Amino acid sequence: MKASIIMPTYNNVELIIPCLITLNHQVLEEGDSFEVIVVDDGSNDGTGEAIHELILKYALKYFYIDRSLASSRAAARNLGLTEADGEVIIFLDGDHLVPPHFIQEHLRYHRERDDLVVIGFRNYLTSNDFDVESLKTEFREDLLPEQLPADRLLAIDAFSEKMSNLETVWYFFFTCNASVRRKNMQEAGLFHEGFKGWGLEDCELAYRLYQQGLTFVYAKNALIYHMYHPSEYDENRYQNWLRNLHTFQELHPSVDVQLLQLLKLFFNPEIRLFWFDSYLRFEYAVRAAHGNLPYKGPVSVYTVHSPLDDASLNELIREADERVVFVIDESGDFRTSLSLLCAASRFDLMYYAAPSCPQKEMIFRQIAQYGVWRQVDYGKPIKEEHP
């Protein structure tokens, strides 16, 4: 299976070079390959010259677009898409450091199913105190500077790793780290080039993919590292976002898209409500508009110690049509995990794979708020008794 990585850039030479270097260390399964398509949106900082001097172990296509009033992130990515020939499109921004198993993580989901949108997250480096020369030899996460987790992880804590629990899952499609099969992109259409400046062109594409019936899944091991650079949610960015919100709402006059205006509470620099609080208002407003009111009953709790067969999977999923179900998956089985991440159910199926002790405490606090209908252990190991 081949992946095409689409990477737009503009005057970011100091960041895109380390990004491209880290891609030299990708570890792929036999028969897999990838290409990187860099679309330079009019840089004048020597980006093209610096890229051509790199020694790379993979195929790279470089395209330069003259800067004009028509320039946009959407147009740059669309050029990359028209030049891509991989079965899977991976969107990656050029200001990230990429661990060796990043591409493999995306591909293993698409290898199992052809109807997925795969979402990865990122951590934020608090400085760029790393040695670019050493990156040419190896990528070591333990040598990276201090980092902060993305706010979006709070949504995983609240709604679990099963992102399809979210009525607004399409809002999590950020083109810094996401992938989709090329044939599904072709069916949905390209990025809409009416979006100018910063914001929402990726979410609008994701909304079309969502309407197309694709399943959004969270690939927690496809984590990347955002290099530090100043970025402010100032009045200019807010006005960009408002203009693009208007474009989005004109294209899709649905209640879901209209309710995006609730995120003004975050983007407005005079208010700046915490992102997760703003997002919760948006998600619960969309749920209410769809008649999906907060669940009040007891929940079932499944602890999975070994791979589930089809009958057990179906039983668990059927139960999620009757009540909220929590699943703590200790099996380490990818098929079990993907089956549950993609399952359609009436109520939330709260899925957590190999949670840490602090995560388990958080999960059990959530369960305690509901009460337990029943508790099931699948494949629980038998303890050996010694005299």
TrEMBL record:
One Pfam family cited in the UniProt record for this chain: Glycos_transf_2
Every Glycosyltransferase 2-like domain range: 4-184
GO MF terms held by the record: transferase activity
Gene3D superfamilies: Spore Coat Polysaccharide Biosynthesis Protein SpsA, Chain A
Keywords assigned: Transferase
Keyword Transferase: yes
Keyword Transferase: yes
PANTHER family documented for this protein: GLYCOSYLTRANSFERASE (PTHR43685), SLR2126 PROTEIN (PTHR43685:SF3)
Protein name per Swiss-Prot or TrEMBL: Glycosyltransferase
